[in-house]
Amino acid sequence: MTDPANPDPARSFGSVADSYDRGRPSYPVDAVKWLVGDEPVSVLELGAGTGKLTEVLVGLGHDVFATDPDDAMLDILSEKLPDVRATSGTAEQIPTGDSLYDVVVVGQAFHWFDHAKALAEIGRVLKTDGRLAVIQNERDERIPWVRKLGRLIGKPDSAFDPTKVLDDSGQFSAVEAKTFRHWQVVDRHSIQDLVLSRSNIAILDPEAQDQKRREVLAFYDDYGRGMDGMQLPYNCRAWHAQVLPHAEVKHTVEVVEVADAERPTVPLAKRTDTAVRLPRVVTDPDNGDDDLLIDFR
Predict the structure, then answer these.
(1) What is the tens place of the pLDDT at every residue in 170-211?
(2) Residue 279 CA from chain centroid, whole number
(3) How far apart are CA 235 and CA 233, in angstroms?
(4) How does pLDDT run across 83-118, given as a tens digit for each residue?
(5) Region of residue 170 (phi > 0: left; psi between -120 and 50: alpha; otherwise: beta)
């Protein structure tokens, strides 16, 4: 459980889920095509959040299973995309069986993972010749006004690059990388959502959050753009690598029976396909053909 006195930035987004959905940019279609391909495939999305990347994947015809550790984020995803399977889960303990997905995709979340545990899990759930695809939007702070905005809302993730982590793991082929440039139109409303959606600001107390919001609003008003908005430039960086055959990880999963009286009562979230409604899928360790068991706890 998160210590209220020392909030975890990685778990801060649920409290600002609406702002995140309104204020964060989407991803260029060309970048997602390059990552995942043109032909429909089975995709597991880790850290799906409110579905920014999910929407693009679904629009390209892919079959997506979306996971995120935060129910508040997934509620928004499922309101927008009610036909997409979505359930709570972390990259370090992925709630699905072995060798099921053509692609595991991660948007704006890979840097939060415990990489050793997450990469083992990703190798487990990928099919033979499956690939890991990572994508990250980064503000282009070569432009002076964007750099000034960055000083107000916090540093960009410009140092982020998963290549060394993937190379050092020994689980993946050589990493391929490509950068796509795109723009997000921000106006007087959405720029406030953008600042509130930042993890370094989401963990602040309400008074400090409001102070930062007012600073960014004054910055926007100084430019006199009103509701015409301004074009915020991004470099969308994308990486993919194929899982190596020797890296396919099989785990033995122990299924423990729990008496009905011991089963906790869990309230259903608003979304149509929740972690409660979606059974956890595990493999039978005693069955050589990897038949699936369904654990409805």
Answers:
(1) 999 999 999 999 999 988 888 888 877 776 666 667 787 788
(2) 21
(3) 7
(4) 999 999 999 999 999 999 999 999 999 988 999 999
(5) left
Listed in sequence order, the residues at least 6 apart from 282 whose beta carbon sits closer than 8 Å to its beta carbon are 97, 253, 255, 292, 293, 295
pLDDT digits (tens, 9 = 90+) for 203-244: 667 787 788 888 888 888 887 665 567 899 999 999 999 999
**Torsion sign over Cα 59, 273, 249, 134:** positive
Q: What is the DSSP string of 127-139?
A: EEEEEEEEEEEEE
Q: Give me the pLDDT at residue 184, please.
A: 92
Domains annotated on the chain, with CATH: 9-138+157-182+236-295 (3.40.50.150)
The pTM of this model reads 0.76
**Are the C-beta atoms of residues 297 and 282 closer than 8 Å to each other?**
no
CB 219, CB 237: distance < 8 Å: no
Cβ partners under 8 Å of residue 250, min gap 6: 98, 124, 283
Kindly state the greatest CA–CA separation across the chain.
68
Q: How many CB atoms lie within 10 A of CB 193?
A: 18
Nearest Cα residue to 23 out of 146, 187, 222, 231: 187
Neighbours of 80 (CB within 10 A): 14
